[in-house]
């Protein structure tokens, strides 16, 4: 049922809605909840600012900005909001009004701005007081140590000088008496500045001070053990306390300017120890008060955040939906009486009852006296393409639409891609050991889809999660083809019975047979291996020729089959759109040309397998063109093969002009007849009728250019003829990648794992096992998976879909709340 639903897109209708103005908002809201109507923009010439509901959109944008501000502030505070459980229809809760929400958001923003401003101001004051406290502590230690040193020196001098007391020694000035007796105008007053400077700038700060004062300064520094909050930036910075001594006003001016340049914060520092102790007490008291105020402010801010966070998600969804509703209302045309709005849009035919029911409910809930008028419009405009997919089929449909969205109701390759894409991938990736690893990863994604669907994943993980069911089928098919190739990490297993071959020397087993790599094993029974490739082929002398021949011929058979499927689908397209020309002059000659050459090659491959003969098919196909009458000799597979090849060659040659000439000539004849019939109709009617007919003709008929149609058909014919050869050769990538995957797997197994296993040391074996696991995961499970995926993608896009798939449609994008994202808030 799903495949049939996917074969052709949903039937669409262009509908017109005449909505009363009082119920317009609720109508669009109900339709957005339903999500089955794609509105057309009926005001394409108007800018966003000239539309009717521009102010409402602007209001919603402003509310969305405030909500983003709230979210950023909550995240900055390191809190996780306790979201209120979402209602099924939060948009239509009558207790939530947009005007009330706008007023509430404005008040909350003003309150939060005020709280932040006061908190920043208090935090800055707290940081400044903290730095002042550190300056008083560290600089006080400077002066205290200096006083203690001075006391010690004066005491030593007092011991040597008679009649000197300790008090006199302490009070004795630092400068010599003769220096104090100089003229007052020539005396230099010694001053100092204390403060803090970032530790990263301390060296430069000291160097600039020394140069600016020419060495006439004395700098003392003390590091602060813990980083402190900088008052200017609010960030934690490692700083040091400094005290710089200088002489003179000019030096002070220079020091002040240097402090400002380096962002050093200067703080007052009294020389009097008593004053220092008093200042420390005041700072500690103020810090305690400030901390209590900050704690109270933080508690109030947390309460505000909790109140906002409890409703934040619901408010965000509501504003996002309101903005989308008003944006959609701007696409509607307003009647001249301004009492109703006219909307046009596309909807699936099957959704008409649901839409009409939503319109009735909207009119009832909005207390409108008039119901919305719903009518279907007839148009020749191409409808959008819409497929109703689920979580399983959606990924395969996305693979198809990455090439191009299908034309309306043309055959959709998506339903065939569900099987053919993972199968062609598995043909290139066939190894049931690697398939099991891939299956485990796919099962993890599938079984954890509910949990992963709620998380924000990275780009690569998001891509893998979206294609989890594609990976699941790829893994299952890889296990299947791995059993056919009989490869488990390149190791064969005799799971499906015994082999049909044995060693010519009965004294040896098949594994130890010395003739296995020289003359080969002998076949002792006619029954083949039950399923897949006989395990004795692996490691034998003829392994590569056998597997190469098998996989190459199998690739051609699969390619011809898929291309024939594409041509057959073009017939169903032509039949559905009632195009007899495409059936007779496109489908039939294409089918004949492809099968007369490459279908015949596929037949020879199957016949050769059935007969067990050894003809050279390369020779047969080459001389089918070069010497069709030549006797095939030992390359003949059946009686009369030469005559059959001549007939097939003639059919292929006739098919080329059959595709090229008839269709443009018939289209030209039909156009001439249509123009003559129109001319007779104009002669038989009135002037008014002729005018109407001409107007209709201008809209309904496109200009016919025979030369353009002929060139287009010529390009199409050449493309198909050359593509038949190149596309068949392109399918040989199935053989090439399968061979590369098998050989890489064998190399890693033999040269890494088996090489390490030759040693008895368990450490070497463990290292070999780890290396084997990493190269298997990195190269075979990641790189080879991606390579096979891309090649399977190319085979579907180019070799398969170009036979019937136009891909020039446009996707159905209904207005739906469930598709709105955070980007719609911008």
Automatic annotation (TrEMBL):
Pfam families: V_ATPase_I. The keyword Transmembrane helix applies. Keywords: Coiled coil, Hydrogen ion transport, Ion transport, Membrane, Transmembrane, Transmembrane helix, Transport. It is found in: Membrane. One of its GO terms (biological process) is vacuolar acidification. It comes from the Eukaryota. Residues 91-125 form a coiled coil. It is a multi-pass membrane protein. Belongs to the V-ATPase 116 kDa subunit family. Essential component of the vacuolar proton pump (V-ATPase), a multimeric enzyme that catalyzes the translocation of protons across the membranes. Required for assembly and activity of the V-ATPase. This is V-type proton ATPase subunit a. It comes from Ceratodon purpureus (Fire moss). The lineage of its organism: Eukaryota, Viridiplantae, Streptophyta, Embryophyta, Bryophyta.
